[in-house]
Amino acid sequence: MTVTIEFQRLPGTEDIPLPRYQTAGAAGMDLHAAVVERLAISPGTWQLVPCGCRVAIPEGYEGQVRPRSGLAVKHGVTVLNAPGTVDSDYRGELKVTLINHGTAPFVVERGARIAQLLICPVARADIRESERLEETARAEGGWGHTGT
User: Fold this and answer.
1) Strand boundaries in the chain, DSSP class E
2) pTM, whole model, 2 decimals?
3) Are 49 and 79 in contact (CB under 8 A)?
4) Gap between the Cα atoms of 30 and 120, Å rounded
5) What is the longest distance spanned by two Cα atoms in the chain?
6) Phi, psi dihedrals of residue 140, rounded to the nearest 5°
7) What's the rounded mean pLDDT across residues 58-78?
């Protein structure tokens, strides 16, 4: 399935690549840091990192901002609210909240690939209040109820 997604560069970010797929089979497009100068994220802290572009996601879809596995494995850096959601009616700058779970400061360089954006269909629910819900075999079991 293919859907057209429009991106708009923000002024002063002409050197920052627009989100793009790195391989033919990639599910997510890489998002790049549009920091003006190097940004250090200390261990145990997080920073909001601008991407230098805005996006128009069609109604019926969302953008999911997810971590890059290489940053997680090599540096302990991930997306704080993963997956972050970009709604179809949002038109502000794309930004990613990175958190450093590693043991050393992590430096974000201008143009670095910092996260990935997946475009996913969204189902809207009709909400209906009910006096009773259909019972299931699981019932209220949760939080490890099936064992280890």
Assistant:
1) 6-9, 29-32, 39-41, 46-56, 61-66, 77-79, 84-86, 93-100, 106-108, 113-121
2) 0.89
3) no
4) 15
5) 57
6) -95, 10
7) 97
